[in-house]
Design a protein that fits this description.
The complex is a heterodimer of chains A (265) and B (361).
Chain A: H1 2-29, H2 33-40, H3 46-77, H4 83-95, H5 98-109, H6 114-121, H7 130-155, H8 158-166, H9 171-200, H10 203-209, H11 219-228, H12 232-264
Helix pairs in contact in A: 1-12, 2-12, 3-7, 3-9, 4-7, 5-7, 5-10, 7-9, 7-10, 8-9, 9-12, 11-12
Chain B: H1 4-31, E1 47-53, H2 57-74, E2 81-87, H3 89-97, E3 104-106, H4 110-118, E4 134-144, E5 165-166, H5 174-188, H6 200-212, E6 214-216, H7 221-229, E7 235-239, H8 240-248, E8 254-256, E9 260-270, H9 272-277, H10 281-290, H11 294-302, H12 311-316, E10 327-329, H13 337-344, H14 351-360
Parallel strand pairs in B: 1-2, 1-3, 5-6, 5-7, 9-10
Antiparallel strand pairs in B: 3-9, 4-7, 4-8, 4-9
Helix pairs in contact in B: 3-4, 5-6, 6-14
The chains are: A mainly alpha (265), B alpha/beta (361).
């Protein structure tokens, strides 16, 4: 009885909080049939926005997987002054509202800031260009990778690495042959989380992108514009597609994390 | 100690990342910078960047493609490429001030263009061009439930106790400021029963009465009307074209035109600074001129900006879908936007500022 009560409450909570809104938006996206769904995706700029969003999310994930893993490794395996501070800095993007991130980036790299003007003179445009969006996405998703890889790393037995070192392997060789294979599920999971998060990022992006249709207009920003423009069906269609991509990724991540845990335990 | 190879790897990746970033950046710069002002040579396929407020999204798509065809025919097949960006009027103006290189701006109210001019980016008098730089107009109306069950006919009806009003937030929305100016002007012109003409204290009292009943302040005029359509509130203060658009979509919205209301005038201007930098001044001017042609006006009409840019004609309406307005005034009749913004309505001691203070207590 009590067990069912507990289970029931948990299921009800999950259902009301997550499943119901999801079902509504997907139903809305497909509300007028498959053809309407496809038509919605031919809204000017919709296709470009989705491609841009997926491409930038992928680049974001790749870059942050590299630097995030490196950071996690440094944080776990090295002892140096300022390590705690570094660890705190990694969490800053979690703590800062993403809109503020956008404002910060614009203040630093915007065309009328000293740095932005300097870059502009050298033909590099950051804000109101794709580079700015990438920067915002990198900023927002870095802690996701670090904090996914770190616990896996902490669980690893350091003696194995020591053994490899004693047997004459270089630090890099040790990392590649001993640490990396065990870390792989964590790295992939971190990367996918970053990717999924980057797909949906709105706040930081909208401030720095300038929203040029077909160029710097991302899918989440397009969704807001469609809603504001009184086109909820089109908005729901784009949202459903974006949600579908994210959802598949989350499923894959779950799988990887589970197999990862089984392997390490 | 990290091995040298790991360090080298990291360095390589930094370089790769920088490459990706700069590749994106150059990709973007291609369309933009095209020589210095004065000595510029236009590109083979010039690129015009247009930043506009969100409501005109649909109509600009058509306007642009018509203009492109027209320009192509008259200029040996030259293809003009348009980059468009849409968003809240004030947000767009802020972006331009912050370096968004728009050659043309289409905004929902004059002060937003003024903001860009004040930043030194517009060097000509944009109000001294065709039709004062105004391309589309509408009027502030009440969007009510079918049959107007709350009998809302004039501004004072909005102060009845218990009424629920939707209007956007004036801090974020240009549309909201039009609504407030409409109520203020109607009161000042002595067209609201019980509120004396030319009495700013009376106007303040009217605004206070209205805003006491405002239950939801959405971030944009569009959000506000969507909210109303989903069943919230008794009345939404909004643009006439928004109600007409809702009716076209089969919704039961009804527009009540108050006896005295403001003519919403939305300006378009060429941003000289950027247009010169991109060497597209001629094309930008031609596009703005095109927006004043009959072809463009018909397109604006088709999406609900039916009212003529000429005040007299706008006031008379067409006797059908767009009824006459008893007393249609402009912001100039109230001393101009400058005065409304910094003094009489939105200034520190302005009628709305004080009314809002009283309401929020």
């Amino acid at each position: 009885m009590a067990r069912w009560g507990l289970r029931g409450t948990a299921l009800l909570y999950l259902g009301l909080l997550i499943v119901l809104p999801t079902v509504v938006v997907v139903a809305r996206g497909f509300g007028n049939g498959l053809t309407a769904f496809r038509d919605a995706l031919t809204t000017p700029g919709a296709r470009e926005a989705i491609i841009l969003t997926v491409a930038l999310a992928a680049v974001t994930a790749i870059i942050n997987v590299v630097f995030g893993t490196e950071l996690a490794y440094v944080l776990v395996r090295y002892r140096f002054p300022g390590r705690r501070l570094l660890s705190t800095i990694v969490d800053i993007p979690f703590a800062i509202p993403t809109l503020v991130t956008g404002v910060m980036l614009r203040a630093l790299y915007g065309p009328i800031s000293p740095v932005g003007a300097f870059l502009d003179r050298h033909g590099i445009q950051v804000i109101f260009a794709q580079a700015g969006i990438l920067l915002a996405l990198l900023f927002v998703t870095l802690p996701l990778v670090v904090r996914t890889v770190q616990p896996v790393l902490l669980e690893l037995d350091e003696t194995e690495e020591e053994a490899a070192r004693v047997l004459g392997a270089s630090r890099w060789m040790t990392f590649r042959r001993v640490v990396f294979p065990k870390l792989r599920p964590g790295i992939v999971a971190g990367g996918l989380l970053a990717f999924a998060r980057a797909l949906g990022e709105f706040g930081a992006v909208v401030i720095v992108s300038g929203n040029i249709i077909g160029k710097t207009l991302t899918a989440p920003v397009l969704i807001t514009q469609l809603i504001n423009g009184g086109k909820p069906e089109e908005a729901a269609a784009v949202a459903t597609l974006l949600f579908g991509l994210s959802f598949v990724l989350v499923l894959v991540t779950e799988r990887l994390l589970n197999t990862g845990r089984k392997e390490t335990s | 100690m990290p091995s040298g190879r790991l360090g080298a790897r990291a360095l390589g990746l930094v370089a790769a990342a920088a490459l990706v970033a700069s590749a994106c950046a150059t990709n973007n710069a291609n369309g933009g910078t095209g020589g210095s002002p004065g000595t510029c040579t236009p590109q083979e396929s010039p690129v015009i960047t247009l930043a506009a407020y969100s409501n005109v999204y649909d109509v600009y798509g058509k306007l642009i493609s018509n203009f492109q065809t027209e320009w192509k025919d008259g200029h040996d097949g030259q293809q003009v490429i348009f980059q468009t960006s849409f968003g809240g009027s004030t947000t767009q103006a802020q972006n331009v001030v912050n370096g968004f290189p728009a050659d043309i701006v289409g905004l929902s109210l004059a002060p937003d263009v003024q903001m860009i001019q004040d930043a030194g980016l517009i060097s000509h008098d944009w109000t001294q061009v065709t039709e004062g730089g105004i391309v589309a107009t509408s009027v502030v109306v009440f969007d009510v439930r079918p049959g107007n069950p709350k009998h809302i006919e004039n501004w004072d009806d909005l102060t009845q106790p218990g009424l629920e009003i939707l209007t956007p937030d004036p801090a974020q929305s240009g549309g909201a400021r039009w609504n407030i100016v409409a109520a203020y002007g109607a009161s000042m012109r002595g067209n609201v029963p019980g509120y004396a003409a030319n009495d700013s204290a009376a106007a303040e009292k009217l605004l206070e009465g209205i805003f006491k009943n405002v239950t939801v302040m959405d971030k944009s005029a569009n959000d506000s009307i969507k909210n109303f359509e989903s069943g919230n509130g008794d009345v939404a203060i909004t643009y006439e074209y928004a109600v007409l658009a809702a009716q076209k979509a089969g919704l039961p919205d009804e527009a009540v035109i108050p006896p005295s209301t403001v003519s919403i005038q939305t300006p378009v201007a060429v941003v000289d600074e950027y247009a010169q930098e991109h060497c597209v001044v001629d094309i930008a001017n031609a596009f703005v001129e095109y927006l004043h042609t009959k072809d463009a006006k018909d397109l604006f009409s088709s999406v609900g900006y039916e009212r003529s840019v000429t005040l007299k004609q706008a006031k008379a309406g067409d006797g059908g879908t767009y009824p006459a307005v008893e007393d249609l005034f402009t912001t100039d009749d109230l001393g101009g936007w400058d005065q409304l913004q910094s003094d009489t309505v939105f200034g520190p001691d302005g009628a709305f500022t004080k009314a809002q203070q009283t309401v929020t207590g």
